[in-house]
Specification:
The protein is mainly α. The chain is built from 5 helices and 2 strands.
């Protein structure tokens, strides 16, 4: 249901605050965890600057933030604290359909396009 409610603007790219703390770029639906991730990066960078944590530990803290996030979203259904990966085309999703119906529709469109081209 999160995909159906979402608009293209809800699919945001992950933000990297500090080059020392690399973030794998993904596009996902904006939620509570994506908001908190920015604050977590600032916190960890502050600890790194203050010498309270070593570089490897700081990077590990950033990686652990999202550990299991995809599972939380996809398997557990936690769309507020999981990583709901989606591109900008998520705004085009208007309803839930069986895959067979989607493929049948695509095949019909392709056949019509080929017939129109042949004429």
């Amino acid at each position: 249901k999160a995909f159906i409610r979402a608009s293209a603007r809800d699919a945001i790219a992950s933000v990297q605050i500090d080059a020392r703390l690399p973030v794998i770029p993904v596009r996902a639906l904006k939620n509570a965890s994506s908001e908190l991730f920015t604050a977590k990066q600032r916190e960890v960078a502050g600890h790194l600057d203050g010498g309270r944590v070593e570089m490897a530990e700081a990077q590990l803290q950033i990686e652990h933030y999202w550990a299991g996030a995809l599972r939380r979203a996809v398997i557990d259904g936690d769309v507020e604290h999981g990583s709901v990966m989606a591109g900008q085309s998520v705004g085009m999703v208007k309803r839930e359909e069986p895959v067979a119906d989607i493929i049948a529709g695509l095949m019909a469109q392709a056949a019509a396009a080929l017939e129109a081209r042949a004429a």
